[in-house]
Amino acid sequence: MSNTELPNAETGLPSDAEERRAIPPVICYPNETLPKPDLPRYLAARETAQKTDEVVVAPRQAACFRVAAGSFFRITSVEGAQVGDLNLWNDADLSERFFSGKTRALHGTHVTAGERLWSTLPHLRPMATIVADSLGWYGIDSYGGSVHDVIGTRCDPYTGNLLGGGHYHHCCHSNLTRALADELNLSLADAERHVHDVLNVFMCTGFTRDTGQYFMKASPVRPGDYLEFFAEIDLLGALSACPGGDCGSEHTSDSAACYPLLVEVFTPESTALDGWQSPARNGYDGSHGRS
Ligand SMILES: [Zn+2]
């Protein structure tokens, strides 16, 4: 071993620490080969669409909704700045659900128009495509924050109990659990295991540069702002109006001002998507190397 490989006695750092830190990163999943959504076609179909359903999500509660493949759904801020926690399932098979981690790996920490919400393995296909985002202008702010994140999980009473004790019942996790239980006539325990990491609609988040901690800041959303999706498969959705409100101060309590969220479903004319089909499940043969 040469002296240059020994850690510096004062700093404890290897002599080539800066050199190693200076290695440039590479993108884990270059996404140029991702199947691209046919956005012009979706938007042309949207022009023909009529509103066919509407659900208002009460503050600190969640509600379910269904969207047929080929229809659109829009989440709108009404009355005041409010963040929403979104779960999506294949309406015919709850085991296929939104995969926040892989969506993050493929598109980045926050999603916007033109990007897609992907489903869990072994399905790994687009469940929904974002077709419009009125907060698309926000970009990445000077803190490294952006909106509509796939880095958070969902506020939940277990973490609340871990960090502060107590039993708070209106975290998004519990709201989504109750909504799914009511929608499918399941016990709370049966519903809870289907609740998963969310798309944080309208939430403004990032990681601190110095400590790498997950942060939130007051959402830039204002009444009238919306995020709209094209349903690639038949969807069951659940949306929670987070007890954090605009998530500018705290969650897991009733202290923040909270507002409703509106979910609207729009269905295009029957011929508008002639020949279009839901994406196929992932093409991997599933053998995992054994025949
Ligand atoms: Zn929440």
TrEMBL record:
<protein>
    <recommendedName>
        <fullName>DUF1989 domain-containing protein</fullName>
    </recommendedName>
</protein>
<feature type="domain" description="DUF1989">
    <location>
        <begin position="56"/>
        <end position="236"/>
    </location>
</feature>
<dbReference type="Pfam" id="PF09347">
    <property type="entry name" value="DUF1989"/>
</dbReference>
<dbReference type="InterPro" id="IPR018959">
    <property type="entry name" value="DUF1989"/>
</dbReference>
